[in-house]
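Reviewer has doubts. Consider these tokens.
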Amino acid sequence: MNTSYLSLSPEVSQALQDKRPVVALESTIISHGMPYPQNVETALSVEQTIRDNGATPATIAIIGGRPTAGCTPDQIEYLGRQGQKVTKASRRDLPVLVAQHRDGATTVTTTMIIAHMAGIQVFATGGIGGVHRGAETTMDISADLEELAMTPVMVVCAGCKSILDIGLTLEYLETKGVPVIGFGTDELPAFYTRQSGFGVDYRLDTPAAVADAFRAQRAMNLQGGMLVTNPIPAEYQMDKAVIDQAIETAVAECNRLGIKGKETTPFLLAKVKELTGGDSLASNIQLVLSNARLAAHIARELATGLPA
């Protein structure tokens, strides 16, 4: 793989060289997922949580056309202040952003790509994209699912975003051969809530067990990544009826306004936040912190199995 375009921070570069655990983090959550200044505060808090749990954080973005693993605090502040002025960069955007020396906030897809370029195996995020409601007519399916089918990175999340069609998302992942792991749960979490009504492929109860499964996947050269779903801590989950009603209202307004493509998810998340009086944002922050803690522990287990 050509890594000549890649920039690593000194901290991330040294950790990788020393074969110490590293956890990748996305930057779309900074520029498009939360308002300023909560976005910057959350990003820095997530990084600190990873450090506190024995791993090195690597916030990933495209800075001046350079895929970057390990953004500085100043770069995170810049992404947070710029907000949606920064391009939300998926796989299709990478060539042009790099060629034109432009900035980009990385989605799950591009974070996986750049993490793999850097040699980072574990990535913590809030929730993945998936099959949108009504996709049987719109064909609106997140590139995240295709990336999980291709790129050997473990993604730790709180399930797919509950604005999506969860059942169809799981069917798509099954077709692509992506293992869906429930960490300490038999049921797929639904982002803001701990249950979705859908089962996972396998329940694993310890970071070591998750690391062993990923290690076996890599040893057999099986294509693609692994999805590890971690339920939001019980004290921060939202009432299912409240969040479901907010999502239904947001989806209806999205359809009425004709919003499509990559603008759909930011619109829906912002509308749900508005309809829930900000409760969804508070839950979002807590589930990201929880996922970061788990990812750090899994990355530590993976690092102990590396050859000296």
User: Anything to note?
Assistant: The two ends are 23 Å apart (CA to CA). The chain has a mean pLDDT of 91. The first helix runs from residue 10 to 17.
